[in-house]
Amino acid sequence: MTTHSSEIEPAAQGGDPLPDPGLPPHTPRLTDTDTKAAKRAERQIGVMFGIAALGSIGFVAAYLALPLDGDLGRLQLSNILLGLGLGASLLLLGLGAVQWAKKLMPDVEMVQQRHPLESPPEDRQAAVAAFEAGAEESGIGRRPLIRNSLLGAAALLPLPVLFFLGDMGPINPNPALVRSTTIWTRGTRVVNDVTFTPIRPEDLQVGQLVNAMPESYEEIPEEDAAERLTTRAYSSVLVIRLEPGEFEVPPGREGWDVDGILCYSKICTHVGCPISLYEQQTHNMLCPCHQSTFALSQAGKVVFGPAKRPLPQLPLEVDAEGYLAAQGDFTEPVGPSYWERAKYIRTEPA
Amino acid sequence: MTALLAKRRHPLAAVVVMAVALAALAALYAAFSPSSQASTTSAQSTQIEEGKQLFLVGCSSCHGINAEGVIRDDGTVLGPSLIGVGAAAVDFQVGTGRMPMARTDVQAPRKTEAYTDEQVAALAAYVASLAPGPAIPEPEQYDPELGDIARGGDLYRTNCAQCHNTTGQGGALTLGKYAPKLTGVEPVHIYEAMLTGPQSMPVFSDEVLTSDDKRDIIAFLKNVQSEPNPGGFGIGRIGPVSEGLWVWLIGLGALIGAAAWIGARSS
Question: Of A97, A181, A240, A306, most Cβ neighbours within 10 A?
Fold first, then answer.
């Protein structure tokens, strides 16, 4: 250290190691020396302001010429012309002003003196005196009971917030707020979304995709819109058909497919977006929100993206009338993770 | 002659005349009917034969001499088997210019068709003759005028919008694949795409997404595409994404350029 400090000693002695280089010498612009160039710049600026004026006039003309009568095509033309007119007016006004400042207004370097910004000493003393007088009059120094109880009350204020946050986490789970199951039960038919028609397995071709719902969703009354939306958000499913032998069947999921027809939750395990971007050749299902990619031929495994868990699979069967139906509910909660989720994982379809 | 004239009042004369007339009609039918059947069959077989010749020249290098498909030595597919894909798949792939492909790529893009309508029909007839498969739909199955636009919108948003965007502007998939734009696509080709599931697209068979459902979807698509852009410029009509792109790239880019221009010293 000492050897190094001795090396830089000579420079430090002189005070500032990099002396102020001062202002560069002023070089006049072409418009300062050449009156023809100045005249040209003047004309440019005049044209710019002229176009700005035409823009304003164009706006008014378009406004008057195209009264809106409910015709959307005319509305489109009107919006384009009004926007171009007002836009040209504002833009050219600005461009003209900048060009004026750059080409013709004086550009000699000027020095502006800056001084520290602070109040005069007498104002500062008065403020301190007022603060001290206030502290003395409140008696906070003489009355420790008030001071200490205030400190205690302020210190406890964050506690309610902590309990609010606790509702979101594992400290104080409220079972009523947790939806760990869906309306799928044993025998619930898998029906087309929108049309709610049941599906026969022989009608599904290899490569087919069906955006499907539980048939019991239709029984929720239309007036209960909130319940319908929430149920839709939990129980939407995807039905696909693969060649038998083209997909992996993990232990415990034997017999969950019907001749290669597989059913997965439509709700992404990342943050719960509905996913159905299905590539039938790769059997990948993509989420449009954050590009999580699930390999449906490998039990819904995540192959790309921020999702951390595979898509839950719904076990399928064929009911007595030959339509696709569920063997039961999902064996795990669908959708994104939450703290106490692990408590709701079941071993058998409920 | 007089004997014949005399016999025309015979009680059996009407029966004889009727029998002769029927025999003549039968002879006429026999003379014309089989020949017309034969001409239809021969026209069909000519079309299939013409399709086969076109196939051998234009398609067989990837799909195999007998349309059985070609698998490369490393196990990847050069051209899939076309046995059982049906006339609808051929009409879609060749009719939209996707096939023949210009080069092997992750996806065959829509381009100018390489074959005339008659040649496409011949190719479709040939491939359909190999094995049963989905047929080209009838005009009333895809006529947008007959569809229910509102119902089609519901079905479109549930089944199609995830890949093709809410107004059919298309979108990205994985590894360079994409869902193409649906603007300017013939209704029959939209129908055939749903029916056959070309390339990455899944199949929506007529048994599950019925013919009426498909027609409603086509009616919705044709309706949204004919809507004007009341806001002014459409900028791709893909909603907030393209608007954000304009603001961030073009708007902010212009602002940065303007700031640099204002700060630059004039010469």
Answer: A240
pLDDT of res. B227: 82
- Contact between B203 and A280 using a beta-carbon 8 Å cutoff: yes
Q: How far apart are CA A71 and CA A68, in angstroms?
A: 7
Residues 6 or more apart whose Cβ sits within 8 Å of residue A188: A214, A215, A216, A325, A326
**Regarding the domain delimited by B137-229, which CATH topology (the fold level of the hierarchy) does it fall under?**
Cytochrome Bc1 Complex; Chain D, domain 2 (1.10.760)
Residues of B in contact with A274 (CB under 8 A): 162
Record: contact B228-A240, CB cut-off 8 A = no
Contact between A209 and B202 using a beta-carbon 8 Å cutoff: yes
Q: In whole angstroms, what separates CA A183 from the centre of its chain?
A: 30
Q: Which residues of B touch A76 (CB under 8 A)?
A: 228-232
Task: Answer yes or no: are the C-beta atoms of B148 and B219 closer than 8 Å.
Answer: yes
Question: What is the homologous superfamily of the domain A190-344 according to CATH?
Answer: Rieske [2Fe-2S] iron-sulphur domain (2.102.10.10)
Residue of B nearest to A33 (CA): B267
- The model's pLDDT over B175-224, given as tens digits with 9 standing for 90+, comes to 889 999 998 899 999 999 999 999 899 999 999 999 999 999 999 999 98
Architecture per CATH, B44-135: Orthogonal Bundle (1.10)
- What residue ranges do the domains of chain A occupy? 27-103, 190-344
From CA A52, how far away is CA B9, in angstroms rounded? 108
Smallest CA–CA distance from B206 into chain A, residue: A203
Least CB-CB distance to A279: which of B154, B200, B203? Answer: B200
> Nearest CA to CA, how far is A281 from chain B (Å)?
6
Contact B174 A304 (CB under 8 A): yes
φ/ψ of A338, rounded to 5, equals -145, 170
> Per the CB < 8 Å rule, is A194 touching B154?
yes
ipTM of the complex: 0.73
Q: What is the pLDDT of residue A287?
A: 92
Q: Which residues pair with A261 in a beta bridge?
A: A241, A258
Shortest Cα distance from B216 to chain A (angstroms)? 12
